[in-house]
């Protein structure tokens, strides 16, 4: 049958190229086609992608020199697979020239076929992918019911692998989108940190100037509280930028050591809250040992100190916002 003329040069959509590549990556396909040939006794087996306009071979095991290779095409209207796509039912016959239906069918006559079996491949979402088929120019000698069951299982196995590969492609696409979103987020954080530094530096310079000119003790305390707040904000900005740069894939390493200034940071928070809420009565009682555990040096020390001060701010700020308000005379 080497002289059969197949229109293999027809162009087809890129989606079909992707389907051919997916089938080629399924390691079990060559073994499945070999087992199909053994189960049926036929000398040609293939997996075909069948659409409403194309019949394209995705994988082929050919021992009769039929002339098809992966990517090779048949005119869809000349195939039985066109009918299988519409009815989604397998077709099987062992001796076409003696068959009451297929002795008159154009496909066996065009391709000089005597034995034929084709099983639809349907994915989990109900999409008709194509067919698993076997053909021969000689009559077949096999039990039709046994062959149908065997090839039906092979078709299901191919469909399951298709679902797995398509799921992997979707997951890979989602991962690429997530990585891109993460990259853009890191860029945004870096730009935001830079933009925040500029006005913060202006505030810091303003407090330096005010501190040199103000002599009133109360006003001086307010300026110093503003200075302390700008320092904390600057540390927070640095910490956020360090998170963005380092990505912290392995978490935050902890190496506890003794530090001496934790109470100073906590006292600064209390002072800020008193100035921010002059109508609230804030009573504090703190005694932090001179040597308290924290991560020594570098940004980790700033990070842990910020966590402590943020925790205190949350505990203090909520009552000042939502707590019981009494007149000063009370």
Helices and strands in order:
Blueprint: H1 14-24, H2 29-40, E1 44-50, E2 55-62, E3 73-74, H3 81-87, E4 91-93, H4 106-111, E5 115-122, E6 128-136, H5 144-213, H6 217-246, E7 257-259, H7 262-276, E8 292-294, H8 298-322
Antiparallel strand pairs: 1-2, 1-6, 2-3, 4-5, 5-6, 7-8
Helix pairs in contact: 2-5, 5-6, 6-7, 6-8, 7-8
How many individual domains? 2
For the biggest β-sheet, the strand order reads 3-2-1-6-5-4
From the coordinates shown, what is the CATH architecture of the largest domain? 2-Layer Sandwich
Structural class category: alpha+beta
Largest sheet: 6 strands, antiparallel
Assign the CATH superfamily of the largest domain.
GAF domain
- Number of H/I helices: 8
Estimated helix fraction: 40-55%
Mean pLDDT comes to: 80
Radius of gyration, whole Å = 38 Å
What's the β-strand tally? 8
CATH fold-level label of the largest domain: Beta-Lactamase
- String of helices and strands: HHEEEHEHEEHHEHEH
